[in-house]
Amino acid sequence: MQATSSPVAAGPVTVRQPSLLQRQGELIGFVVMVVALIIAPFFTYPLFLMQAMCFALFACAFNLLIGYVGLLSFGHALYFGWASYLSAHAAKVWGFNPEFAILTGTLTAAVCGFLAGSLAIRRQGIYFAMITLALAQMMYFVALRMKFTGGEDGIQAVPRGYLFGFINLNNETTMYVFVMVVFLAGFLLIYRIIHSPFGEVLKAIRENEPRAISLGYKTDRYKLIAFVLSATLAGVAGSTKAITLQIASLTDVNWPMSGEVVLMTLVGGLGTIFGPVVGAFVILAMQFKLSSVGEWVLVIQGVIFVTVVLLFRRGIVGEIAALFRR
Amino acid sequence: MITIFGVPSAALFGQLLIGLINGSFYALLSLGLAVIFGMLNIINFAHGAQYMLGAVAAFLLLQFTGIGYWPALIIAPLIVGAFGIVIERTFLQWLYKLDHLYGLLLTFGLALIIEGVARNYLGSAGLPYALPESLRGGQNLGFMFLPNYRAWVIVVSLVICFGTWYAIERTRLGAYLRAATENPTLVRAFGINVPVMITLTYGFGVALAAFAGVMAAPIYNVSPQMGAELIIVVFAVVVIGGMGSILGAIVTGFGLGIVEGLTKVFFPEASNTVIFVIMAIVLLVRPAGLFGRGT
Amino acid sequence: MKKAIGLAALAALLLGGTASAQQINVKIGVLTDMSSLYADDTGIGSVIGAKLAAEDFMKTNPNVKVEVVSADHQNKADNGVNIANQWYDRDGVDAIADVPNSGVALAIAEVTKTKNKAFLASGPASSDLTGPKCSPNTIHWTYDTWMLANGTGKAMVKTGGDTWFFLTSDYAFGHALERDTAAVVEKSGGKVLGKVRHPINTNDFSSFLLQAQASKAKVIGLANAGGDTINAIKQGAEFGIVAGGQKFAGMLIFAPDVLALGLKTAQGLTFTETWYWDLNEGTRAWTKRWDKERNSPGKVPSMNMAGVYSATLHYLKAVAAVGSAKDGKAVVDKMKQLPAEDTIYGKSVVREDGRVLHPAYLFEAKKPEESKYPGDLYHLRATIPMEEAFRPLKDGNCPLVKG
Questions:
Q1: Which of C89, C90, C106 sits opposite A153 (nearest CB)?
Q2: How many CA atoms lie within 13 A of B135 on its CB side?
Q3: Is residue C219 part of a domain?
């Protein structure tokens, strides 16, 4: 990820333009991803792909925080899950069109992100992780108790509805295209955030926060904004998932879900653009294939965690990128 | 009958006592976490799974070798502690030079493995473990019937907690431990084998968790998920108490147990969330935790 | 001449014979909980139930080929819906059986209706499945919350347990169970002295048990399930609840739970089930077969597992009668028309709202010294005829029921 480039001074922080090679690599990667997503439904079960895209977006949002700001949020299921609930409720009970339902869910996630972030940012590192976990767990219990979430039953039979009032999302093809568009839009937004002056400040904070503070940056504010962005995009993923699978349940807010998104990002490659996407698809595919031996999924996930942390810290994409740099 | 806030005093004192019992488990577990974190700077996410292993070890000892509760109190923590030492040597030691978060992730993965394997071999329904004969029955205290076993739990926890605190804060060995946390190189220069100390400390922390597990076996459901449910609450306890302090972990553990007990009387549906709400409040007012020292 | 007629007759017979005995392929998916809360009450045991049913049916109907697949929904509605969609769309599954966990079951009922397959619900408890959420593609076997509430509640009041205190799991299922049971208790002349709601998956019931003790109610109703029930009972023993003269009424208890508790703790527990392995010769014989398949000593089959067997058998009968498994609603309609009878559930009646009626039995867990052999867990205290055991048709608010 280190560029062979000349730093361009732009204010107090040196903004390093990514090298041409890196930009080209990312462009190729993006094209490959889009093409793969277009032809995949002809080979694989489309519903699985749609679910994978939602989780990929979720992982990308999570990665924004850990990969580029260095903050490990162990409670990201909070935003994903609550967005999922509100989106489902909006579509089913309030009769919103899908785009407004997703908007509702996203706003919910943003608010939750702001509140949680304000509390969690007060600490760093491990404490930060533990606080996010504890807050998420608290909201899990709240979700369990509140009537509208349907408790253990969840919100079921969420209508897909008509996008913008006339595009029928019950048609699998239309739905697929819609999910793909949402995913790519979110992905591109994250890309834009990372490769922007704001993103460079985030990276500076990750590298050396005291130095960034000494340069005059109000790091807490930047961290909070990044946190809210990450939560909001996780909310987009959750809301879309609720409409796609037509269900919102406690699974979405529970801590294993937070653990899973960490796993996906870790396996794919922390701090890489495509890593979370790859990781999400890989982990979901594994879960699908192993659903008949359900008992071992937990163990296998744990083994993957341990192995990746010890040996393959760069994740799939990270290892591939390292190979190319040789 | 005197009533306090509409609740008969008998019920109130009963609940307080029970809160103290729960607090014992919180204290024991957060103590173990604090000890491990203090020495290794690693959040042992596997703590809950190791607590479960303690209970399971006690069950298996009884099931297959007929060894009962009393020996199990010593043997189970030794076994699980040894297992902890193996974990430290095999996995954790490679992570000390890395970002602390990797330690958290690794122990999280370990927790999944331990819980998954336990589920496969033991099922999820829960395993029976009988109360030891000598601790059956109870005392009628007038305002409640206190099972002997529960009283035993409180006493033992207090003894172990304060014993550990004393060992760490007041003895020479404890001084070495604390010094090694702050400046391992210097301590090594004094000829003290720091890596061995680290390994043994982790083992001790794990053994504490397993000990709590054995204590829990006769009264709580011995199931593979028993640790997972508890660990996150313990995390909150530790955040509230402040990670730097052993005393903080103990006091907060018992304290929060009592608070939770009171909540169960006045507002039972919130009993699950009250500790997290307190955590949020503490974070707003005193980010370092009640007993913590700085970041 | 005679030969020609004979040959023609033979030809007609052969042709006609093969026409009526054409090959029918059926694929049944057992969606269950193999790894968590309900794994011992359903799980692999349920899959065995389906497999035994397939075996038995294929023996007497060689023209029907039955394939049984299985999957673990891990008590998550998402997983269940995912698997169901895949099974129905891609894998050619015609019917889904079992599905413990009412939340998952309700979701599966929806998917099954949309795709016009069949749902043989033996695992879930919610009486909504044959009430407001009833569907022409759902058959609800074995039990439901109404029957549990009615059976245990009424019976306990009749035998002197007329004051109740509820320990309720604080979510939809627990509330429903408490509501139904309280209604029955009061209708039978009893009184509900109080209740306390506990969070699901509570480790420590001591404070709630204390309140129950203080209420001095004769019966403590456990409106919860799985680990919560087991925990409450275990800790109740510790606090001397039963020794103090109060009784526990487990609203949802299965035989494997009693086994897990151990008779020492579970003794005196009263509950309602529709099947028990040691009930009669038929159930015993089936259990022997089940045991051999299960190959794990010390386990007992639950009523759900037996329910999967019976439901599957009856479903296959209906498929054979209709001629194909493709139209779920048609097969389910046939299941409602054909009389249901087998060696382990005896006679059952499939109602138009999808509810299957069985006689219900009030059981009491034996004292350890009364248990003569492994698995000898229950006393049979009372039998409730099927017409009384389940909610009357008109009270269900099922849109399928006319008038």
A1: C106
A2: 19
A3: yes
The verdict on C244 and C107 lying in the same domain is no
The amino acid that residue B223 corresponds to is S
Nearest-by-CA chain A residue for C77: A249
pLDDT for B248: 86
Determine contact: A265 vs chain B, CB below 8 A: no
Q: Look up tokens 């740099």; give the residue.
A: A325
Which residues fall within 8 angstroms of residue C5, CB to CB, at 6 or more apart? none
CA dihedral B225, B230, B232, B235 (to 10 degrees): -140
Task: With respect to residue B9, please indicate whether it lies within any of the assigned structural domains.
Answer: no
Residues C135 and C154 in one domain: no
- Average pLDDT of the residues in B170-194: 81
pLDDT at A10: 30
Taking residues C106-127, what's their average pLDDT? 91
Distance CA A301, CA A317 (A): 19
Shortest Cα distance, chain C CAs vs residue A4, angstroms? 46
For residues C266 and C370, state if they share a domain. Answer: yes
| Whole-structure pTM value | 0.83
Q: What φ, ψ does residue A304 adopt, rounded to 5°?
A: -60, -45
Q: Does C368 touch chain B (CB under 8 A)?
A: no
Give me the residue from C78, C81, C172 closest to A153, CB to CB. Answer: C172
Q: Is A298 on the interface with B (CB under 8 A)?
A: yes
User: Collapsing DSSP states into helix, strand and coil, what is residue C342?
Assistant: strand
pLDDT tens digit string along A245-275?
Answer: 999 988 899 988 999 999 999 999 988 899 9
Judged by CB atoms closer than 8 Å, whether chains meet at A297 and B116 is answered as yes
Confidence check: pLDDT of C68 > 90: yes
Distance from CA of B217 to the nearest CA of C (A): 11
Q: Cβ contact (<8 Å) for B105 and A309?
A: yes
Q: Which chains touch A (3 or more CB pairs under 8 A)?
A: B, C
Q: The tokens of C301 are what?
A: 């089959």
